[in-house]
Structure formats: C-alpha cells, structure tokens
Amino acid sequence: MKREYEIGLIINPETADEEAEKIKTSITDILKKGKGTIENIDEWGRKALAYPIEKHKEGIYVFIKTMSPGDVIAAVERRLKLNEKVMRFIVIRIDDKFRKTNKLVKKWEKIEKFSKKPGGDSDRERHSERHTPRPKPVTDNTEVKTPVTDTKVKETPVEKKVEVKVEEKIEKKIEKEVVEKTVKKPDVKEELIEEKKVEPKKEKESEVEKETEKKVVTKKTEKKVVTKEKKVEKETVEEKTDVVETAKEKPVKTKKVPAKKTTKKAVDKTEAKTEEEVENAETK
Amino acid sequence: MQRPNKPSRPSRFPKKQYFSKKKYCSFCKDRIRLIDYKKSSDLENYILETGKILPARVTGTCAYHQKQLSKAIKQARHMALVKFIESRRG
What we know:
The complex is a heterodimer of chains A (284) and B (90). With 284 residues, chain A is of the alpha+beta class. Chain A contains nine helices and four strands, in the order βαββαβααααααα. In chain A, helix 6 (184-198) runs parallel beside helix 8. Chain B is an all-alpha fold. Chains A and B meet through strand 2, strand 3, strand 4 and helix 3 of A and helix 4 of B.
C-alpha cells in the first residue's frame, strides 16, 4: 500500500555539492526500485541552523516528497542512519485524512456556503450560524439558493410582460382621464375657434366675451362640475350655433325677398299697392 | 412600616472589566488543513522568546490545530529550523 511520505535531510556543509547530489540520487533510486513515485524535491541549499549541530552553523537542506510503500521507506531510513554525511533526517507520514474530506473541512464548506464573502471571520460566521434557526439538510439550502437565481432569471421576462400590460392599461386609463379632464379644454377651444370662423363678424365679439366669462367661471369650480358645465356648454353652444345659423338665414331671405319684390313691383304697379303687398309678403 | 427599597449601592471595589478582541484560530481562518513544519516563520508566532510553545488558551488556536502545531514545532526543532532554548551569552 502506497502512502505519502516526506523525507527531510540536513547534509554536512563541508561536503561538496556533487556528493550532496549523490546522496539525493541514491535515495531516489531506492524509492523508484520499490515502485515508489517521487512527487516533489525541495532543495533549499545552504541555510543557517537555529542551533549548532556537530559544531556546524550551516546545513544543506533537502526535502523529498514520495508516494511509496512503507517497506521502502524503512530501507531508506536504514541507509540514512549509516551515512555519516547526513547530520539529521526526518521521515513524516502524511495521513490520508489530510488529503480526503475531513470533519473540519466539512465545517469550513458549511461556513463558506452561509457566508457571503469567501474569506471571512470564521468565528463570527459560526456565531451567526448558532443563532440562526438550524437549516434543513444541506441539499435544501443549495436548492433554496439556486431557485432564487433561477427565479430572477425566469421571472424578469414575465414581470416585464406583466408590467408592460399594466403600463398599457395605466396609459389607457390615464389617456381616458386626460381626455375627460384636461384634453377637453383644447377641444372646446377648437370648437369655439371653428364656431368663430363660421359665425358672422358682428356677433363674434359678443359671443367671445360670453365664452371667456364662462371659462373663468369653470376654472374656479370643481372638476366634476367643470365637466358637467362643459357638456352643457357644448350643447348650448351647438344650440346657439343652430340659432345663429337660422338667424343668419332668415334675415338674409327677408332682406332679399322684399328688395326683389319692391324692385319688380315698383316698376309694374303703383307705390301704394306695392307697400301693401310688401307688408303682406313680409307677414307671410 | 415598609421601608422603601434602597437603590443597590455600587460596590466599593467594582470588578475590573477588561475588554479584548475575541480570539480566533488563525489556521482555521486561512483554511489550513495540515500545518507544515517547514514554515518556521509561521511557527515562531506560537513560540515564546525562550523557545516555549504557547498554550492555546493564550493564542486561541483550536484543539485540532494546536495538536498539529505542537507536533510541527517539535519536528522543526529536530531539523534545526526552530530553536529549543534561547541561546545564552558566553
């Protein structure tokens, strides 16, 4: 069974670099013969020691990481003990528990799920975790988190459509209201302007004055009343226009008819008879 | 006769209140699974000047990491990366 080991060496600084490499290669050869794999080799070179070893203040540091069976490691240890140029050596087994998921790692993963920031205060997060109601199994949390994003993605178009519909409705309503309240005034004005054009010049001024007075009154009164009055105004104005038209037509006829009659009759008949006939015609 | 309730008299020698930052395990914060004995610079923060290992009660490291740390310091001492004792003069 292969396991991960780390071998550390401190080689005597008096040895030459070539000899130090020989020691290193000899170890690697043993490991490779025993079906071991060398993962990493760290060479620090000559480095000051924290305390003197064998009256040396320096040492050549070499670290070798391997995946190899335990028997081979034991053979390497035997070889290193016999070697006089190796001042110190250490063999450390890195347990499987450090490579696989761990209780602590699971805790960290849980904290990372709850925490917004990737690297926050773990204690504070744990503290908050304690006080928050304990969540259902972790799968639920992931499910709860994912749909939020999905709903954001999915709901936005639906909401937009709804909003658009609502906006259309609102716009229509607003338009209706505007037509009822505000837009009526210009309509009335336009009608008035049209009426002014139709009306004769003599009657224009008097009617305009009346209309202006009415406007002033309407502006002061409430809106509902305004609408009602405007409707009334429209009707009245229409009636007035009819009256005006009738008034126009009648006098024109009366004026024309007697003039023609007078001219014709004056030529044909006497003045006295003509006057009586004219009066009769007028009455008719 | 009912005596009115006396207001609680402040104690003559009030308890001294010390405020300090909450301790936390720095290894947990950095999400370190295995403490490496080769990084002597990290280990030196958990050693006194005399070379003693600081207790977790002082540093705030969790038990999981304190076990590893004490082991790593001992391994580093063996490899002359960390001193055993403060070297005396002379």
